[in-house]
Amino acid sequence: MLGVDFTGSNLSKSDFQYSLIGDTNLSSTCLADANLSHADGFSTIFDEANLENAKLNDASLSVASFRNAKLIGTDLSSADISYSFMAGAIYSPKTDPMVTQGGFQELDRVTYLRDPFSAVDLSTECRSSTNASLTQYPLLRLRKLFQDNGYRGLERQATAAYERAYTKSELDDYWNWLAKLDGAFRFVFFDLTTAYGEFPSRPLIILLLVALISAFVYFCGINFGKPTSNCDIFKVLPSDRFDRIGPNFSFLDRKVELLPASLWKRFGYAILFSAQSAFQIGWKDFNVGSWLSKIQSQDFTLVARGWIKTVSGFQSIISMFLLAMWALTYFGRPFQ
Fold first, then answer.
1. Which side of the chain, N or C, has fewer Cβ within a 10 Å radius?
2. Which residues contact 67 (CB under 8 A, 6 or more apart)?
3. pLDDT reading at 244 higher than 80
4. Is the pLDDT score of 52 beyond 70?
5. Which of helix, strand or coil describes residue 199?
6. Residue 95 pairs with which residues in a beta bridge?
7. How far apart are CA 156 and CA 151, in angstroms?
8. Torsion angle, CA of 156/159/160/166, rounded to 10 degrees?
C-alpha cells in the first residue's frame, strides 16, 4: 500500500504488521490500538493522527511526519523514527524509540501532557479500548537517553521542549495569576534569550545588538540633543597620567574635556562608551570593561551625564544578565 491516501480514515485496531507503508498519507487518521510493528514507512505522513496505544515497535519510520500527532501510550520500542518531523506532537508514549544521532526534526517544538490524566482533544469515535499507560514527564526520559548517548544537541532540544511546554501550561492557567506571571517571566528571560539552553550563544548575539543600538542612541544624544538638556559624554583624563615637560617627566592634573567635534570621532567614542557600559560590571579581577581601557593609547575614562547615564546603567544590567545566561547555558545545564 505504498503511496495510499488514508486521510481522515478510521483505522483503529487495524493490523499493518510488516507492511510497506512508505509515502502513505495517514493524516488525521484514527490509529488507536493499531498494530504497525515492524512496518516499513519511510516518509510516511502521520500528521494530526491519533496513535493512542498503537504498536509501532521495531517499525522503520525514518523521515516520517508526526506533526501534531498524538503519541499517547504508544509503543515505540526499537522503532526507528530518526529525522522525523515532530512539531506540535504530543509525546507521551509508553516506550521510547531508538536513539540515533539523527534524532528528530523539530524536537524542541514537541509538547506533552503535564497531567497524565488530563483531558486531551481526542474524539469519542477514536479512543483506545484501554486507558493509555502514560508517564508524566516523557520528555525528561527521552532527554536522559540523549544525555547517556552523548547527543548534547538533542539533549538541549528535549530540555527546550519540556520547559516550553511547562511555560505554556502556566500561561494557559486562567485563574492562577501568579502562574501566569511566572510563565511570562520564564518566556521573556529564559525562552527568548537562550530557548532554555538550546541556543547558548544567542545571549552574545543579543548583547552585541544591544551594544550597537546603545551606541547609536549615545551618538544621537551627544550630537542632536538640545544644548540645555545637560546631557553629554565627557572625556576624563586622570591625575596619575604623566608626560614629558621639558627634559623631565611630570604628572599632569586631572582634566575634563568635551568630545571632539568630528562626527566620525564622536561615533567612535559612542561605540567605545557602549562597549565599556556593556562590560562595566565585573567580578573581582574579571572585568572586561577594565581590560578595554588597558588597550587605549591614552589614559582616560568616558563619563556620561543626564539620561545617557541612565541608559548606560540599564545597558550594564542587561549585559550582565546576558553574559551570565551565556556562561550558565554554554558550560552547564541550568534547566536540568
1. N
2. 47, 48, 85, 86, 87, 88, 89, 106
3. no
4. yes
5. coil
6. 75
7. 9
8. -170
Amino acid 124 reads T
The answer to whether residues 61 and 38 touch, using CB atoms and an 8 Å cutoff, is no
Which helix or strand (DSSP H or E) is residue 255 part of?
Answer: strand 255-258
Question: From CA 167, how far away is CA 203, in angstroms rounded?
Answer: 20
**Helix residue spans in 225-306 (DSSP H):** 263-278, 288-294
The pLDDT tens digits of the residues spanning 130-147 come to 554 445 578 888 888 898
CA distance 106 to 98: 17
Closest CA to 45 of 19, 70, 67: 67
- CA angle 229/231/236 to nearest 5° reads 145
Both ends of the chain: CA-CA distance in Å? 44
pLDDT per residue over 62-83, tens digit each? 999 999 999 988 999 999 999 9
- The ranges assigned to domains in the chain are 1-176, 203-331
Top CATH class, 1-176: mainly beta
User: 183-187, 224-228, 265-269: which range is least confident on average?
Assistant: 224-228
Angle at CA of residue 46, ends 43 and 49, nearest 5°: 175
Q: How far apart are CA 155 and CA 72, in angstroms?
A: 21
